[in-house]
Structure to design on (277 residues):
């Protein structure tokens, strides 16, 4: 089968909370949201505050069919969902997927749970799009049509999070956020999950030096991302979930260090686009 373009654009790369100040403008202060294009299909991974502008842009481009994948329901990954413009357009078809469902919680109950008074003035019944919720079996591969496969992985994060690996046209992007590694121990299962991916997007909230002070916070380091990509022969490594307080100059320094240690490794910037094929 012939395949179309495969690319990713970062609409939000900041972790934990949206930030805004003159010294963070280049990397950006919006929280996690990524757009993955697979030919004619549009996939969205997390809808943090960066998802608001992404939604506006999809509307401007007239895109009306979107699959949204949520890694987990911490605010920095979903706070843009009630502001995601395609949800308010009648002509849109939006499928919201997550692997977070248990016997008691489903994608639908989680979405309805946080977009509701007293947390938010409106509820999803006011969305005008044709929107549906889908629970993914974590650990399984899901075929979403048009030659796109989505593999899922249970990450190590308080309350759980789902890692996604998108396969299209023989290429792949793995998205691993949020995830904490055990210091000094290679996560073999996660390594197999990202093995050989053309691009790995990885949680780099902390550095190896900082992590011992933040055990249990649920995050990893750029150094661990590099070690994992080296050990399991992955391609490029894009680091995201930047600490709210990291300035552009601090991120520049980390970016230079990471790129020197492992060519093809970079701290992602809001608005950056990577073409895979
Ligand atoms: Zn997060
Ligand atoms: Zn989280």
């Amino acid at each position: 089968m012939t395949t179309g373009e495969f690319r990713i654009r970062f609409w939000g790369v900041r972790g934990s909370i949206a930030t805004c100040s003159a010294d963070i403008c280049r990397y950006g202060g919006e929280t996690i949201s990524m757009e993955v294009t697979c030919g004619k299909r549009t996939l969205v991974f997390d809808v943090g505050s960066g998802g608001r502008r992404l939604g506006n842009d999809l509307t401007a481009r007239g895109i009306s069919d979107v699959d949204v994948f949520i890694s987990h329901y911490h605010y920095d990954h979903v706070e843009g969902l009630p502001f995601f413009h395609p949800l308010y357009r009648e002509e849109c078809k939006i499928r919201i997927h997550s692997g977070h469902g248990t016997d008691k919680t489903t994608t639908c109950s989680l979405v309805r749970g946080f977009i509701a008074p007293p947390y938010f003035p409106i509820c999803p019944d006011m969305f005008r799009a044709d929107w549906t919720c889908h629970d993914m079996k974590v650990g399984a591969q899901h075929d979403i049509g048009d030659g796109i496969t989505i593999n899922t992985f249970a990450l190590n994060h308080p309350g759980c999070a789902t890692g996604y690996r998108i396969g299209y046209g023989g290429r792949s992007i793995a998205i691993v956020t949020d995830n904490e590694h055990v210091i000094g121990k290679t996560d073999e299962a996660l390594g197999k999950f990202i093995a050989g991916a053309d691009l790995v997007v990885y949680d780099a909230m902390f550095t190896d030096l900082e992590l011992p002070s933040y055990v249990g916070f649920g995050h990893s380091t750029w150094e661990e991302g590099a070690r994992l990509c080296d050990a399991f022969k992955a391609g490029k490594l894009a680091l995201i979930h930047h600490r709210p307080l990291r300035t552009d100059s601090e991120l520049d320094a980390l970016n230079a260090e990471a790129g020197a240690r492992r060519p093809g490794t970079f701290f992602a910037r809001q608005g950056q686009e990577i073409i895979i094929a």
About this structure: The longest helix spans residues 248-261. The chain has one domain: 6-275.
